[in-house]
Amino acid sequence: MSSTLEHLFDRNVAWVDGKTRADPDFFRRMAEQQSPEYLWIGCSDSRVTANDVLGLDPGAVFVHRNIANIVHTSDLNILSVLEFAIEHLKVRHVIVCGHYGCGGVHRAMIEERGAMLDHWLQPLTMLYRKHHQHFHRMARQDERLDRLCEINIEMQVRRLAATPLVENAWRRGQELHLHGWIYGIHDGLLRDLGPHLSSVEERDALPSIDVRVLTEIEPVSGVRRHAFSAFEALLAEASCACNCPSLPTRPECPS
Ligand code: CO
Q1: pLDDT (tens digit, 9 = 90+) per residue, 5-22?
Q2: Could you tell me which residues are beta bridge partners of residue 181?
Q3: Which residues are catalytic?
Q4: Model pTM?
């Protein structure tokens, strides 16, 4: 393999060629201006690339990535991205997206210390240590890891909602929605975890993160949402004559 990485330039030319054939105006449009509607805050993991998993073209999503998608409220990098996205690009949605099996989150769970990364992960490590007993009631290590991956996302959405940048946007009436999502590397599906926050009031109404650690969250994927809506009419038809939410054949129907 060439040390000047020529194979990557070849791939770039092939990509430009494919794009231009499919859409002759693509690069002219790109050169005009970016107006993404979404800011994606994700993990640096090479398998979770925002545009690919969202099926979006360049120009549609503004991206910040770091190890374990942590929102540090003193990180000039993320704060600059956030300021530009909210105040100049006027994105309407900020998505914190983590993923199951995250190596960064795993690092926060182990005893070894001393790397720069451990400073980066410190807020998550502290939360994990605080709830060590709860996590260790789960039998399997992968179960503990996946649960901490989910909690980490909620924690970062909350930290985002506490930044003066987001608070100020809400106070001046700018439409801005925060989302917490998780991606399954094993199946390619995104899942909505919440919380969804669109105001200071919604943020302040949340229970503490310690309460959330103890409460199971059921992540909902797009596939599941489609399945619900496909069977909605059927379920409504089949519901009990007594109007209880049970199906007539189910034993939980009280009548
Ligand atoms: Co990761």
Answers
A1: 999 999 999 999 999 999
A2: 97, 192
A3: 43, 45, 47, 99, 102
A4: 0.88
